[in-house]
Amino acid sequence: MTLPSNAPRSLTRSAAPKALNLELVGSIVRLQIQVSSLKQGERPRSWYDPGPIQSLKALRIDSGGVHGIADLTGDEISDVHHRDHPTTKFRGENGISLGFTSHYQRMRNRFGAHLSDGVAGENILVNTDRIIADEDLLNGVVIITRHGPVSLGSAEIAKPCVEFSKFCGGYEPDQLADSTITETLQFLFDGTRGFYVRYDQEVPRQSQVSVGDFVYRRLNAVS
Questions:
Q1: How many domains are contained in the chain?
Q2: How far is residue 41's CA from residue 45's CA, in Å, rounded to a whole number?
Q3: Is 26 helix (H, G, I), strand (E, B) or coil?
Q4: In a domain, 26, yes or no
Q5: What is the DSSP string of 89-100?
Q6: Domain encompassing residue 93
Q7: At 126, which CATH number?
Q8: % of the chain residues with pLDDT over 70
Q9: CA-to-CA separations, 93 to 5, 81, 82, 99, 185, in angstroms, rounded
Q10: pLDDT (tens digit, 9 = 90+) per residue, 78-92?
Q11: Would you call 44 helix, strand, or coil by DSSP?
Q12: CA pair distance 215, 140, nearest whole angstrom
């Protein structure tokens, strides 16, 4: 594996043996949290509102999900999917979400320019030209940070919702879903919408990731 010339020294030093089992996916270009639910209203007249998405330079990750780190104060702001959020939407598998810029380009090609990077609400957005399938993330990912590697377990597809599918299609908030939305759900289902990953319990209780950190996928399962 060829390491980027600006890869953190921690990768070439303490993480060097593990690096033989890793393949570079790309660097983190956006980190964000959802401070409240993006789904509004009641079905069948519900809609998607990206307004509660907050972009940040760093996140703290633990077994319950992610906290944003306020750029100016350093205060923690919980994502609505974090286990400890007062109105949590945590289900066990959805505490940490991962997306890719290549998937956004695929969505823009189909739906239009309003599918800007990050609008789907994933916590970690990785810059890459390749389309990432769930089998590519079967063995999880490792984020190389200036504090050391952060291990995230095997990924599963973040199933798209009707509300986001209506947003993709430019539907009005009270417009009912139809067969076109069914087709959109099918298009987004294969991981285009993103993935959920779990925090590896073998690493420290809490880890920090920042914009610019490198994301690698594991080529083989950890023995």
A1: 1
A2: 7
A3: strand
A4: yes
A5: ---SS-SEEEEE
A6: 9-158+191-218
A7: 2.40.33
A8: 89
A9: 34, 10, 11, 15, 20
A10: 999 999 999 999 998
A11: coil
A12: 10
